[in-house]
Batch of 2 targets.
Target 1
Amino acid sequence: SAAGRALSEGAVTAAVRAAVRHVDTPYDRLLMEGAGWKAARAEVAGTVAAVLDAWRAGAGPERGEIAAPGPASGA
């Protein structure tokens, strides 16, 4: 759509980074446990960077090729 083409690369990158932070890290759990958003973001930054770097290199979670540092999200 025209609206989609109008999005800047920075806006798309920020949205993807946020999605990775919420889906692939314990960010939300950290917030629920009382961590401030800055501290929670700092704690998961390495995992977010690793996932994005792996995607840029062509790896995908469906092939089990992402080895992100730190704990994974979940129980």
Target 2
Amino acid sequence: MAIRLLEGTYPSELAALLGVRLYTVQSILTSLEREAVIASRLMGRTRMVSLNPRYFAHAELSALLWKLGENDTTLQSKLAARRRRPRRAGKPGLL
């Protein structure tokens, strides 16, 4: 659901958002990619994942995940609080 709501994310962001270990997220993503439900691509050294637009039920799955995500207020608030880009190293900010 988070992948659909974010419309593209990376494994460590999903792990932090959902409060699970990175290895767990990577294992699940690998399994979903093997089944062609999600697609991943490298952007530099970061593996970005999103729903696979070539998946046979992409439209239906996307609509279902969007509908489920609309009613999950906890996930919505976590998504709203997330930074979409990493901070530059050494940049002063809030602690």
